[in-house]
Amino acid sequence: MSRAPVTVEQAAAIVPAFDVEPGCVEPLGRGLINDTFAVASPQGAFVLQRVHPVFAPEIHLDILAVTEHLARRGLLTPRLRLTTTGAAWLDREGEVWRMMTRMEGVSFDAVQAPEQARAAAYLLGRFHSALDDLEHEFVGLRTGVHDTPAHLRRLAEAVAERPEHRLHAEVARLAEAIASRARSLPSLASLPPRVVHGDPKLNNVLFAAADGPGARQARCWIDLDTVAPMPLAVELGDAWRSWCNPRGEDEQVAHFDLEIFSASLRGYLEGCTLALSKDERQALLYGVEWITLELSARFAADALRESYFGWDRARYPAAGEHNLVRARGQWSLHEAVVAQRAAREAALRAAC
Ligand code: GN1
Ligand code: MG
Q1: pLDDT in tens, 243-268
Q2: Where are the domains of the chain?
Q3: Architecture (CATH level 2) of domain 114-351
Q4: Which ligand 1 atom is nearest residue 33's CA?
């Protein structure tokens, strides 16, 4: 089962370990994985997080290298605050905590206008390009994060292991559809790795304001636990599955917005100075098909296991019910994306 959530008091007790006075500590954000708090103190504004054990503590060495490089290249980025002993993370009774500077800005769960997605994409292009000459051996890699066959295996295992689960029949049906679709998509293996964000959904980018022109001005990328070398098609597939589905992750029937897709593709190519190979460009067509399928499999497996993704206690009776809605939402998005393959291909041909 998931770990007990952290209380504000517990979080406040951690703050001095980062040489910060625990001024005001409040829960922050809607992340599904880490426990997150905002800290306002005389030393400045920070984000304190209890890091989920899915991440190796060594990711902080990767975050350190990536954020230093981004800052050198003139991009805004949160920076790690070291502990009083100079460490990049704190190990307290077996739990990993880290503190980063809190960036000003507003996040959105759903794209409000194509221009907003264009801005996020432009900044993602700059992010990737700035990291092109980073010389760093990644040490905290969450191996298998986008190993789709492994996610499909875990879903099949969950279905086999939980026949008594109240949602078993529904998940089993979905799992079968997912597995059969996976057999028909072309493989993305053998694409070159690029240093990317790793979880570029819309609410991981901060905008200058909640409305007006500032809502179309992307300031910086946050939530850097997943920075890693991986194919661009996977990264942009993950971005598009989030940006082009304005209904968000909690709706069973999704919609893939082609206008947002085209606007963000153009924005990305404006911000990106990487020399992309023909294979990398062509693979952009299938990345979003794979990612929607993979995330559907991950949510479906957790509908039975009820142990990984955070869930909304106000709207659902239990984690399983929330994750089943999300799994169906991503499946529906996958179907929409496949149905629009020809239109996406035309947009890609026009832009690349
Ligand atoms: C998780 O924690 P959060 O919400 O930024 C997940 C991503 C999924 C996303 C779906 C480490 O990200 O992979 O795309 O939920 N992160 C991890 O909302 O599993
Ligand atoms: Mg997040």
Answers
A1: 999 999 999 999 999 999 999 999 99
A2: 8-101, 114-351
A3: Alpha-Beta Complex (3.90)
A4: 2
